[in-house]
Amino acid sequence: MKPIATLTRMATALTLPLLLTACDPMLSLQGSFWPAWIICILAGLATSMLLMWQLIRLRLAPHLGSPLLIAPSLWALCTFSIWLLLYSR
């Protein structure tokens, strides 16, 4: 009885993402439809560049660690935060 329940859970876990793929919000910009994740990535890039510039201006960047780790992490943080703020309904 237990292997059947496990198999059912696995089947549900594998088919659920396929059903959710059509739930991507689209935005109309200048008559062209853009996926919202592209807008969030671009806004996250601009925000992270602004924040990194502020960290450099305030002389805090050398204390954070390697810029090769900090800059992409800041970009990801900004992108995911914008996504959650705008599309978390």
Automatic annotation (TrEMBL):
PROSITE patterns: PROKAR_LIPOPROTEIN. It comes from the Bacteria. It is a multi-pass membrane protein. The keyword Membrane applies. The chain crosses the membrane at residues 33-56, 68-86. Belongs to the YtcA family. This is Uncharacterized protein YtcA. The lineage of its organism: Bacteria, Pseudomonadati, Pseudomonadota, Gammaproteobacteria, Methylococcales.
